[in-house]
Write a structure and sequence with these properties.
alpha/beta, Spore Coat Polysaccharide Biosynthesis Protein SpsA, Chain A, 9-stranded mixed beta sheet
Amino acid sequence: MRLGIVVLTTGRPDLAIHCLESLAAEVSPPHDRVVVVLNGGPPGDVDRVREAITRADWSAWASLMPRRQNDGYSRANNDAVRALIGASHPPDYVLLLNDDTSLRSGALAELRVALAANAEIAIAGCGLEEPDGRLQTCAFRFPSLASELEGTLRVGFVSRLLARWTLALPPSRAPRRVDWVPGAAMAVRRDVWLRIGLLDEHFFLYFDDIDFCLRARRAGLQCWVLPQSRVIHWRGQTTGVRPENAARQRRPPYWYRSRRYLFEKHHGWWYATAVDAVVVAASVLRRALAPLRQRAHDDPPHFLTDTLRYGVLAGSAIQAWDTDR
């Protein structure tokens, strides 16, 4: 089985090189090909990664795709995917990797075995882990109005009531079919790219993986998580938003715009507006209940105003994208 692998980095050549080091013992040249996409960043980044490839003698399987500016996650990945699936000997699957990932020993071998054993797997997510081996959440349900209410309010009895819509599925060591998997380590069969198209470039960052898996589901395709293909995910190294300080950092505007666009694209303007309203109401209620629960609310800074500013008050996300184009 041929694998094409895309390692995307934005201004972090050190992370990209570390990811390549973990790939070196896993790839099978000449069948496998790795493309490192440098999505903007200082000119010296390209030289640094190129020198690492030359010094370690990785040029038989690794190549560079420099881009002058950061046009977002989807557009940068798409450039590499087009090159891979359009090659004279295209891969059977293309594996997208964030630069803040590192493969455990045997990760690609386990991935190949699982994909070869089940032809129904169109999209596969690797098992994401902390460096100490603790499992990360890497299997999810599609977001909905109910999941946004539960995820924002986070009150015990409400969470229990809405358990069947909770976004994150409990971590597990068993392979299973799920709604969507994170794009940090996501393998996609070649014919899926050709059938449903590439990543939606309207997403600058965040929610693009959900959109892609939802489009696949609507095309009758299956998405699985394969925990036996183990990948360390150094969360937050790429974006700077780490789990331990997420509640103290203001989310970027494109996070809110991408969420609004996802709901409007797949469910319509009224549904997206209802989601914004529910999120705002749930956040206000959570803040009101915080003293009674003897705990501070942990919404990111400016969460309420940003939800309104980049959500319903910004108008139609789809019309905004059309205007920009």
